[in-house]
Amino acid sequence: MTTASSHALIRLVERNPSISGAEIASELVPPPQFSHASFDSYRPDADFDSQQAALDRLNQFAGAWRAAQRPGGFFSRKRPARIELPGVYLDGGFGVGKTHLLASLWHVAHGPKYFGTFIEYTALVGALGYAQAVELLRGAKLICIDEFELDDPGDTMLMTRFLGELMASGTRVAATSNTPPNALGEGRFAAADFLREIQALSSNFETLRIDGLDYRRRDTEGRSTTLDSEADVAAKAEALAARGHGVSLDAFDDLIAHLATVHPSKYVKLLDGVEFIALSGVHELSDQNAALRLVAFIDRVYDAEVPIIASGLALDEVFDDDMMAGGYRKKYLRAMSRMIALTTGELPPHD
Questions:
Q1: What is the set of domains in the chain, with CATH numbers?
Q2: Its GO biological process terms (predicted)?
Q3: pTM above 0.85, yes or no
């Protein structure tokens, strides 16, 4: 699609990145939107006492954890404070600040520590193999898991076993979760589902319920913006590249096909040096595997805050009716809201 006159346009489909276990682990940090999240910057809604209660309890969790790490020894006058349970689960609907609180806990914890979505941890295991992934994270003081998936029994069992090994060696875990497939009222509380699915570990988790209103209700409003033609996308990409920006330019079909050849753990490496993504010929998807790969890719694009320029069908309309009525509806809704934000230039606040 590029020409000899192109200003160093990047083609994502020509990138075949490699990534080491250490590099994957180094990416397990809060996304840029939460790079400065703190307990002090969390603003509990005065109408919902559980938000302040969760904030207070997490502060205690962090304080006790830090105290437990201070040297004291057998003959110290005061025994270190103990955390009753090694895991904490933040249970709440959409938009009540669970991810903000999770990132805040990560920031105050001692390392080694890791923060990622459920998908990122399963990608780590897939890329390295189970034993090597366990060994890589062994010794972690804290592992934060955002959006613990409950819709794939195999992945849930894998992560339960994975966390069980790490928690047995002293690692503490904090998590939030998504609701199961086709759950009535997709913003409902999911603690019972979470604890049931990880039953082997459920006794290790304290549940903190967080009530509240979704402060990003507007995320699924509006529509992803598009340009009129492939030529318009190419011209916009050329203009941005000419001004010194790192711009990728690919056909939508080519990108979708290429994502199938790249392990999801490497999607973040596709974005190295990319400040804008240009896509031409966007159309509706009918293959669920392709759609889920796009969801995983958009998550990485969103975390990196890389705007998208596109032509064809609006990106938030790429998932067909069968997909939107199926078990991955919530994932698609999240991706849709993120693609709207990425094409309109307004990155919404997170949960």
A1: 12-16+218-344 (3.40.50.300), 46-212 (3.40.50.300)
A2: cell division
A3: no
